[in-house]
Amino acid sequence: MAALFLIGFMAAGKTSVGRAVAQATSRRFVDLDDVIAAAGEPVAELVARDEPEFRRREAQALDDVIAAAGDGPVIATGGGAAAFGTNLDRMRAAGCVVALNVDVGEALARAGDASSRPLLARAGELAARRAPVYRRAHAVVDTNGRSIEDVVANVRAVERVWATHGDATIVALGERSYPVTIADALVVPPGTVITDRNVAAAWGTKLGPDPIVIEPGEASKSFATYERLCGALVARGLDRNSTIVAVGGGVVGDLAGFVAATLFRGIAVIQVPTTIVAMTDAAIGGKTAIDLAAGKNLVGAFWQPRLVACALETLSTLPKRERRAGFGELWKYALLDGRELWSAIDACTKWANAGGALPPELRDVIARAVAYKAAIVGRDELERTGQRALLNLGHTIGHAIEAHTGLHHGEAVGLGLVASCRVSAALGMAPTTLEDEVVEALRRTGLPADPNPYLSDAVLDRVRVDKKRVGDKVRFIAVREVGSCEPVEVGVAELGRILRVTVAP
């Protein structure tokens, strides 16, 4: 059995959960802080006296533990261990790495006596800085409001998935946990394939015999296409033990996922996304839907896939407009995650415009976006705690523009990001320069960057039927700075005023 490393912020429960996992699996437990303290100086005193020296000793202790990890121990690390040097990379190479998530407020409540944790005074700043590092674990398991038994069960489920998909990011949902893999070549898993005409033309030889083909485009997310697919699958003899394989972009994934969620009251679905938007967003998290005339995705269900298998080679055949549009979602993730991802996406903008060989940074960009979404879904699968709402950054206005104008999803989301920055500045939450920075980023990617021509009365009217609307207000994702976003409630009329349009009565 391989080693299991538990990382995460202070007071996330790494020691308690680690001991419980070790006991349940009859393995050796190692607390990295105990290894360091065995040299003669308590950890709290060492950190307070000389934090750089503590980090050096911590890295050496980690090396020693990894070297002796042949019996597959459970290892609890300190809160900052994963964020120092190459520690995280070495942990990932040596075993399964699970980050335990805890809110700062909850961590402070759990911590008790601050004298034993010298870094507690900087808790907010440290948590924000380390969060992108923690998301690079193989999986993030939430601990807020959960019992140790529940967290232990979730960690063990993740480890079982990791045993067969070691390089994957794992969406931690207990027994329904599943991997998101990123490979170079397209390999379609067994099952009944649903795809669209464009994907079939480009990759037909890899799709297996007789895939079911729909027309590309948002118009296919309709009751008519849904009914046709259900009828075709029943005619082919599928039953409750069958598997649907959705090979395509967000339209194919949403539609095939909704069919899987409802046919025979639910059958398995595997998502094989072929666009940037689908790989980083639509295929992950179990949101499935079809559209109504009143708006996008108004009829749907949460139905998690068994596997999400991304193949980078499929991005090489994307039309120029589709390739660029994917960056609308990528810039969204940069605003959510932070400057490091922002810079990595910026390095890919030449490819967004010119195509050609995939930039080496693109794999890391997609992996980081996948990790962000996986962490959010594991924490708020059904969008009940407000965490998953963060993924709607740029979508409140973006969806309305998309539905009214026919712009591609990523193009509309990009415009929605600009609108989000404008609203955030008007609410006193963000500097006015943030909008300019996002506009320039979109322009470097070849995306539309001026939302003003699209902010009509009709577009704002569509916000009134947004799924996130409650009464005359909508939950809107505001941006404080790159890497810091939060939900706020804003009146629909107030949105219109800020965005310099008049909302029709």
The Rg value, from CA coordinates, equals 23 Å
CATH superfamily of the largest domain: P-loop containing nucleotide triphosphate hydrolases
Number of domains: 3
Physical arrangement of strands within the biggest beta sheet: 6-7-14-11-10-8-9
Q: Indicate the mean pLDDT.
A: 93
CATH topology of the largest domain, which one? Rossmann fold
Strand count, sense and barrel status of the largest sheet are: 7 strands, mixed
Distance between the termini: 64 Å
Low-pLDDT runs of 5+ residues are: 501-505
CATH domain class of the largest domain: Alpha Beta
Looking at the overall shape, the CATH architecture of the largest domain is: 3-Layer(aba) Sandwich
Determine the strand fraction and express it as a percent band.
15-25%
* Total count of strands: 17
- The chain-level structural class is alpha/beta
The share of residues in helices is 40-55%
Shape: globular
The total of helices stands at 21
Summarize the structure in words.
It is a single chain. This protein has 505 residues and is α/β, with parallel strands linked by helices. It has 3 domains: 3-166, P-loop containing nucleotide triphosphate hydrolases (Rossmann fold), CATH 3.40.50; 183-318, Rossmann fold (3-Layer(aba) Sandwich); 371-498, Dehydroquinate synthase-like - alpha domain (Dehydroquinate synthase-like, alpha domain, Up-down Bundle), CATH 1.20.1090.10. The chain is 46% helix and 18% strand. It contains 21 helices and 17 strands. The protein has helices spanning 14-25, 32-37, 43-49, 51-67, 87-94, 104-111, 123-134, 148-164, 197-203, 223-235, 250-262, 276-282, 320-337, 339-346, 349-354, 361-379, 395-405, 409-426, 433-444, 457-463, 492-498; strands at 3-8, 29-31, 74-76, 95-101, 139-142, 169-171, 178-183, 192-196, 212-214, 243-248, 268-273, 287-292, 295-302, 307-311, 469-470, 473-481, 484-491. The strands form 4 sheets. It has a 7-stranded mixed beta sheet, sandwiched between helices. Strands 2-3-1-4-5 form a 5-stranded parallel beta sheet, sandwiched between helices. Strand 16 (473-481) and strand 17 form a beta hairpin. Helix 4 runs parallel beside helix 5 (87-94).
